[in-house]
Fold:
Amino acid sequence: MRSRLARHLGVSETDYNDRLAIKTYVTQGDKRLAGSLAAIGGKGLFTKEIEHSLLNGEADIAVHSMKDMPAEMPEGLVTVAVPAREDPRDAFISDLAKTPWELPDNAVFGTSSVRRAAQLLHRRPDLKIVPLRGNVDRRLQKLGEGQADATLLAEAGLRRLDKVDVTRTVLEPDEMLPAVGQGVLCVQMRENDERLELVREALSCAQTSLISSAERAFLLRLDGSCQTPIAGIARLSNNTLSFTAQLLTLDGSQELTMTESTTLAQGSEEVQLAAASEFGIALAERIFEAAPKAIQDIVRAA
Structure:
């Protein structure tokens, strides 16, 4: 991403560190590993420190995982670009089996994602789910130490970290529907920064922006949080936008999957983004109305 931005701005590699320096942050979401994410504050724990650095001028551009973004953005900040999506699928990692469905009876599965836990329990109610939090390296370390027999990680994160040495099975969406927004990045800046358009032109992907607009609108309409088992993925082929969504109970005993599609009319970027967002909202309303009461109660309580 830095190299794309540098090329667009005419910055040579020798000037990277001076003109496009990278500052990394360890957020509260990475530090506070005890308990579930839902119990200690939710998605905002992964963004607060970084957003504060933007607001106080310590940083000019922030890059977040879209699925970590809370519903509300702090005043003064905007999403300036949505880069091309990385692989949205989940990756299964275990020495005991090649897929979750082949694990031995009563295997211990490490995940702190209520979405993954519910999906696993829907097909394998015998599995014992235990919390497994931390960054990718920490979770892999815990797996190696025997704290769990298996885990799931986002394939996008493994690729971005160049984890070619990690043996895994990448699960297709019809086998394990990913989290809404998985594999999508959000580039954030101050709304009064005069370089907004330059960054948008350099980094934004029109197709991913449309897909993300539908997915995020779907999630926000359901008021989805890290406490709600919600999965979904949108795809764009020519002008046809399709979206498969899934809602589950926490124990996986009940679930509903729904797929719908729409044709986006030709128009400006703003018009198409609005249409994608409306489609996501409409799907959220339809799947909620069709869901069993137990699922509706979970969504309402989130």
Observations:
- DSSP finds twelve helices and eleven strands in the chain.
